[in-house]
UniProtKB/TrEMBL annotation:
Recorded family membership: Belongs to the AIR synthase family.
Name of the protein in its database record: Phosphoribosylformylglycinamidine cyclo-ligase
Pathway note: Purine metabolism; IMP biosynthesis via de novo pathway; 5-amino-1-(5-phospho-D-ribosyl)imidazole from N(2)-formyl-N(1)-(5-phospho-D-ribosyl)glycinamide: step 2/2
PurM-like N-terminal domain mapped to chain residues: 55-169
Localization in the cell: Cytoplasm
EC number: 6.3.3.1
Organism whose genome encodes this protein: Fodinibacter luteus
UniProt keyword terms in alphabetical order: ATP-binding, Cytoplasm, Ligase, Nucleotide-binding, Purine biosynthesis
Gene3D superfamilies reported for this sequence: PurM-like C-terminal domain (3.90.650.10), PurM-like, N-terminal domain (3.30.1330.10)
Catalytic activity: 2-formamido-N(1)-(5-O-phospho-beta-D-ribosyl)acetamidine + ATP = 5-amino-1-(5-phospho-beta-D-ribosyl)imidazole + ADP + phosphate + H(+)
Domain PurM-like C-terminal as annotated: residue spans: 182-344
Length: 376
């Protein structure tokens, strides 16, 4: 450029960031966020930080804070392909708050982060509406969030989302391996479907089979896309009611996410016990067998990747099985005894069947999944 030439004027909008679109997105999501609140929330949407009155926590004998953060993985690719964005936020909440309740903690508040190539206000508002609905169901306050526009890094229709939540539990009430003992029963809580794990495998299988998302699948009773976009079940409020229920003693909980049933159960067991889980106690929903069949996926790989119809596990003493099952079934969560906890020193172990011991850095107990699922 010569000294006489004037430099081209470059604005933030010309660089690809639309501040006005971001403001419009905030306006569109306000009604949803207002529903996802609690009495302890101070201030409103738009502050630099979300504020939560912790007076009740201060009155606890020994409050322990619990925190979790997560995303929804490549399930966002399905939402983008179908241009349906009002459920993916629901998935996000389930993946975050249901990790917190595992230790017996009550999730209190949550924040979200959405990164996108271009802010489309209606799309952002739809995503947040799903987050807010799930927070309302989980009795969690949505107290803040951030939407970031990343032109040049993400395509105009690309986005990803993540969230974090904080909860609290009395130290004396923390659930965990030290409570689990031989004689306990392992309860399975039904999932709503794939939830938000294993979508890299699922998408690869669907692509390999040449199935379109609008394909009607008789076994599902709906389209493939509808099945794949089914929201993650949010268990936390129901499980907190279980924790507090009279006549129910709860020893441990496990959220069945990445790693599958055996590995996640092993994480909440002490090293002196062995859990024996029997496949004959349940039939996984059709989506799991369909993925396995279409991709000729080996059963061990399928079970390490997907929840196989079990979204959560509760470990209870035998005399609490009926009360726990009744409470959860009354809340619409199919619950059944899927296994037992045994003394590791004397537990029978089936030869040639994998034994899982601990996972994700946790040196826990051992788990063996045996038998076969009944035919549908």
């Amino acid at each position: 450029m010569s000294e006489t030439e004037q430099p081209t004027s470059i604005t933030y909008a010309e660089a690809g960031v639309d501040v006005e679109a971001g403001d419009q997105a905030v306006e569109l999501m306000k009604a949803s966020v207002r529903r996802a609140s609690r009495p302890e929330v101070l201030g409103g949407l738009g502050g630099f930080a979300g504020m939560f009155d912790a007076s009740a926590v201060a009155r606890m004998a020994r409050p322990v804070l619990a925190t979790s953060t997560d995303g929804v993985g490549t399930k966002v690719a399905i939402a983008r392909a179908l241009d349906r964005h009002d459920t993916i936020g629901f998935d996000l909440v389930g993946m975050v708050v249901d990790d917190i309740v595992v230790c017996g903690a009550e999730p209190l508040f949550m924040t979200d982060y959405i990164a996108c190539g271009k802010v489309v206000p209606e799309r952002i508002a739809a995503i947040v509406s799903g987050i807010a609905r799930a927070c309302e169901q989980a009795r969690v306050a949505l107290i803040g969030g951030e939407t970031a526009e990343h032109p040049g890094l993400l395509g105009p229709d690309d986005y990803d989302l993540a969230g974090a939540a904080t909860g609290v539990v009395e130290f004396a009430d923390v659930l965990g391996p030290e409570r689990v003992a031989p004689g306990d029963v392992v309860l399975g809580l039904a999932s709503s479907g794939l939830h938000s794990n294993g979508y890299s495998l699922v998408r690869r299988v669907v692509e390999h089979a040449g199935w379109a998302l609008d394909r009607h699948v008789d076994e599902f009773g709906r389209t493939l896309g509808d099945e794949l976009l089914e929201p993650t079940r949010v268990y936390s409020a129901d499980l907190l009611d279980l924790v507090r229920a009279a006549g129910v003693e709860l020893h441990a909980l496990s959220h069945v996410t990445g790693g599958g049933l055996a590995a996640n159960l092993a994480r909440v067991l002490p090293d002196h016990v062995h859990a024996r889980v029997d496949r004959s106690t349940w039939t996984p929903p059709a989506v799991f067998s369909t993925v396995g069949r279409l991709g000729a996926v080996p059963r061990p790989d399928l079970e390490r990747t997907l929840n196989m119809g079990v979204g959560f596990v509760a470990v209870v003493p035998a005399d609490s099985v009926d009360a726990a099952t009744t409470l959860l079934e009354a809340r619409g969560i199919r619950t059944w005894a899927l296994g037992e906890v045994l003394d590791a020193a004397t537990a029978p172990v089936d030869a040639g069947v994998e034994v899982v011991r601990g996972a994700k850095g946790v040196e826990g107990g051992s788990v063996q999944v045996v038998g076969n699922h009944p035919a549908p």
